[in-house]
What we know:
The protein is of the alpha/beta class. It is 41% helix and 17% strand. The protein is built from 13 helices and seven strands. α8 runs parallel beside α11. It starts with 7 loop residues before the first helix and ends with a strand.
Amino acid sequence: MERSWISAGDFIDLKYKLGQKGGIDLLSRLSLSGQNRTVNKWNNVTPGSDFWIIPEVRKRWNEKCTGNPDKAYEDYLVENYLMNVSNLRLLSIGCGAGARERSFGKYENFYLIEGIDIARTKIEEARKNALEAGLTNIQYHVTDFWTFQSVTEHYDIILFNSSLHHFKRIDELIRKKVLPIINEKGFLVVFEYVGPRRLQWTNKQLEYSNRLLTHIPEKYKIRFNSASVKKKVYRPGWLRMCCNDPSEAAESDMILPIIHKYFKTLEEKKVGWDILHCLLKDISHNFLDDNDESKSLLNWLFDREDDYLRDTGRSDAIFGVYQKIS
């Protein structure tokens, strides 16, 4: 695996973050334990400028997952796997502010939906959103999945939405925590980053992304809450990744081999992320304007990432539906 313990990008990012949040905030994070740094990050996470904030990117994900840019995978799953089933129980692990649970909760198929997360502020937000939506079939818990005690013995669906890559000891997690609570005919559903651990992007990814960066007009390369221009895509240093959030992509490259070890694949679709993830970091806010120039540039970038996926056969993100191997 190509790896950088410390990169030039770390120092550029440090200068950028100091300008955004100041040194006291950064030093306070380092004083916390690894687990508490992770909790602190997700308790205080705010909308920034990562590529998932762009509506057109989310539509692209929908199309990759469901074949329809206007259909989310929740609706696709219900229509294709759950249409004539009732009294379903779903557990969403690492649920954040609860958007996925609310999407499932609108269907009468679900008797109980539970969402768990270690970030108390996100769970409070999720509870508020579910209450405002009038959804009474959803419960939220502030807890770690390792210590979670469910109110039901088995679930029909276990969901990891961009959360499984935050776990260590994934083989043990699947074997000891997931398999015992999923029904024999139940579904494991994942929408996940499965690329290089600690976001150690390959040299080929970096070279390709930097070539594309030179073709992006400067006004689209202004960093979020800054006057500086993004001039290069760097691989983040391994040490910085561990200091900022020890859970980030800890064993991401092992997710698919471990899932395939214990589950049969009903479907598994490549979602990409290989180029857009690193290329648009800190500059995604420049693509939120709904104008022809922005859309044209995004579509060009989407096509270039598709070229990369086709040429390499890779995908740093997948959408998959699985069942236990009987």
